[in-house]
Amino acid sequence: MSAEREAAEVATVVAAAEAGPAEDVSSQPPSAEAMGDAQPPAASEGAAAAAPPPLRCLVLTGFGGYDKVGDRVMALMRSGMWQEEVTVLSAQTFLMPESMTFEEAAALLVNYITAYMILFDFGNLRPGQSVLVHMAAGGVGIAALQLCRTVENVTVFGTASASKHEMLKENGITYPIDYHTTDYVEEVKKISPKGVDIVMDPLGGSDTAKGYNLLKPMGKLITYGMANLVSGPKRNLMNMARIWWNQFSVTALQLLPANRAVCGYHLGYLDSETELVSGVVTRLLALYNQGHIKPHIDSVWPFEKVADAMRQMQEKKNVGKVILVPGPEKEN
């Protein structure tokens, strides 16, 4: 194969696709960490499907790095995946384990890559440390809880509605906090007066400043979203302006005496870092195969009910990942 053809190698797939990193809706995928001692083991090689999967799955039909057409794969793209047929670079496809469902595959990549890189690449999570996870019942939140369980003696604080606390305990949370009725800053300080080692911040606005002030010395705040900009079913320009005005800002001279770090993360801007992201996926698949992580699916919706799926999230009813698929509606 020529160098030009290798550079342009792509896989054509039949599928529904995954939502972007700022969203919590994914579509059905097509057919086919610097942690020191705390780093999970490397993954074993995935297995191909014994028979071509049905149309609702991502199916490899063109060039690619796998043995045969019909391998079940997950695909990672920045946008353009809410459709039945997509063309993706073969380097952006990952072989699914035999035991993984297509719904789990759709929920795995964006959520678990995000949580893993925040906790281990930026956060350098180690045994005995503590983490504050906002939106703990969302896709990234549950992924973070499960990943924290892979490191010994990690204390996890998480914010979520009271009705979701029992499920969060099942996924490893130590102290669930109902942000509707409780000041989470006060709750954290009651239990850990010095604060926490890592804050995962998808909220933005004044919550970023609160998270920064909760950090212990040598603590890290990783911001990866601005969920506070969305305050209801309709766009509220006044609220957006208020959140933007109150957005946290810090200078290098302020960070020096504070002994804290502030990091920004956006998976969508790592699309050219193929080796980096692929290494994370390899470690995640090892953890999946060992039973340490398992995506939690809230509900599955056909493409024609995308508005209902988005409403499920906007009204904060979901626990885990909301999935979009082509084909008929599945019972939730």
UniProtKB/TrEMBL annotation:
Enoyl reductase (ER) domain location: 36-324
Pfam families referenced in this protein's UniProt entry, alphabetically: ADH_zinc_N_2 (PF13602)
Keywords for the protein's UniProt record, in alphabetical order: Acetylation, Cytoplasm, Membrane, Mitochondrion, Mitochondrion outer membrane, NADP, Oxidoreductase, Phosphoprotein
Annotated stretches, region: Disordered: 1-48
Domain of life where this protein originates: Eukaryota
Ranges annotated as biased composition (Low complexity): 9-25, 38-48
Listed InterPro entries: ER (IPR020843), GroES-like_sf (IPR011032), NAD(P)-bd_dom_sf (IPR036291), Quin_OxRdtase/zeta-crystal_CS (IPR002364), SV-ATPase_mito-regulator (IPR052100)
Protein name as catalogued: Synaptic vesicle membrane protein VAT-1 homolog
Protein species of origin: Myotis lucifugus
